[in-house]
Known about the structure:
Layout: H1 3-8, H2 15-28, H3 33-41, H4 49-59, H5 61-72, H6 77-87, H7 99-102, H8 107-120, H9 129-133, H10 141-154, H11 159-167, H12 172-184, H13 191-205, E1 217-222, H14 227-233, E2 237-242, H15 244-255, E3 268-271, E4 274-275, E5 279-282, H16 286-289, H17 297-316, E6 318-324, E7 331-337, E8 340-346, H18 374-377, H19 388-399, H20 407-414, E9 427-428, E10 431-435, H21 437-442
Antiparallel strand pairs: 1-5, 1-6, 2-10, 3-5, 3-10, 4-9, 6-7, 7-8
Amino acid sequence: MSVDATVERLASSDKTEREAAEEALVAAGAEAVEPVLRALCDEESPIDWSTSASLLRRLGDPAFGPLIAAMAAAPTSEVARRCGWALMAVEVSTPAVYLPALRHPHPKVRKSGIYFLCWQRKAAAEPYLPDLIALLDDPDEGVRDNLIRGFGEIGAVAAPALREVRRGAGRKRRGALAALAEIGGWGALDDHDRQAIIRLIEIKSGYEDPEPMHLCGSWYAVPTADQAAVLDAFDLVEPRPVTMRLGESAWNRDSHSWTRGPHHGCRRVYVTPALDGWTLVFGRMPAVAHAIRGDDFEAVFRADAKDRCARLSARFGAAHWYGTSCGDGWTAWCIAEKGEVVRFYDVFGPDDQIGDGHPAEAGYRLPHDNGIPESILRDPDLLSAPDLVDRIRRAREEEGIPEEVDSTEIAGRLSVNPHEFGPHTRVEGRAVLALTACGVAHGSTPGVVAI
C-alpha cells in the first residue's frame, strides 16, 4: 500500500485501523513526512490535525525542517498553530537539528528555535551558546525577549559566555546584560556592571517624577515618612535604593510570577518614598506566597491583610491595604485605625466584610452589587438586546443608581491613588527594594526590570 493511501487510513472511524496506519507511517520514516504534513496543513482534511501532528513528532529529524518551512509559510494562523504544536515535541536525535531554526529568516521560526534549545533541551544547550548569543542583537524585539528569557532557563552555565560579551564591544552587550539579570539578578553581574547600574539609578533618581502605576496585586499604605520604621514593621532588610520605575517594574514582575519555582515572587518588596505623606509597600509577603497553592489560600490571604493592617495601625495610627487585578475584576480594601480593623471588603468574598461601610464609600455602590436596574429586570427580553449596556447605563442614571467603587477610588479618598501619581505628587526620601526572609535565604529575585 502506498504512503498516500496509508495516510488516508488515518481518517478511519476504526481505531484499530488508525493505529495500524500510524505505525506503518512511522516505519516508513522520511517518506511519510510530506503527505502527513500536507494533511496537517489542510484545514479541510478529514484527518484529525492532532493525529497528524503527533505522527510528525514521532517521525523525528526528517520532520523538523519541513515543519519549520510550513510554519514560516503558513497561510492562516490555525496552520501556524498546528505546526508550532507539532514542533514543540519533535523527537530529534540531537539539539543540532534545531540550529537551522535559529538562522531562519522568519522571526517566528527563530523564536521557536530558541524555545527548543532553551526550554526543551536546556541541559544540553551549552555547546550551542555561541549560536544563541549571535541572536542577542536580532532585529526582532520578540526574538530578543524570547532569547533573554531562554537564557534564564538555561541558567548559570551560560553566564561566563555572556560576561565575555559584556567585556567586548557592539550591540550584543545590552542583551547580554539583560540575559545575566535573567539568570541570576544582581548576583550574576560583575562589579563593573553593578557600579554602572548604581550610578545610573543615582542619576535617574535625581530628576525622577512619580508616574501612574500599573496595578495588579495588593499593597499597603502607612501614613508616615519614616521608611526605616516601615521596613522594620514588615521585617524587611538590606534596602537597596532604586528608581520608582524600577520598584514598580520589579513588583509587577514578581506579582505575575506563578511558575518560576518556589520563593520566586516573595523574596523582595518595593517600598516607596513618602508620597504625599504616605509610604506604600508593594510585594507578596512570604506567609501569603507560600499558601498560594493551598486549599485555604483565600482565608490565609484575607487573614494576613487584616492582621497586618491592625498591627501596623497600632504602630502608625492607621494602615490601609488595597488590592486590584488587571485581569479578573478583583478589588479589595482593608482600613485599620489604632490597632483595629474598621472596614474590610473583598469583591470575591462579600460575606467576609467587616464594618457597615465606610465614609470613603459614600456615593458609590459596592462592586459585588451588579446594580442592574429594576426596569431592566422586569423585562427579561431586554437582557438579550444588542444595546443592553447602553440601556443599563441610561436606566441607572434615571433611577439614581450610583457608580461602583473600586480600591483605587478608596485609596484616592483616604490615602494616595497610585493610578494618579504625577509631577504634582510630593516626594520625600528614596524608593528601595528590600529583602524578605525568603530573599535573605535564597537571594534577590532574578530577572530584567526597567530602570
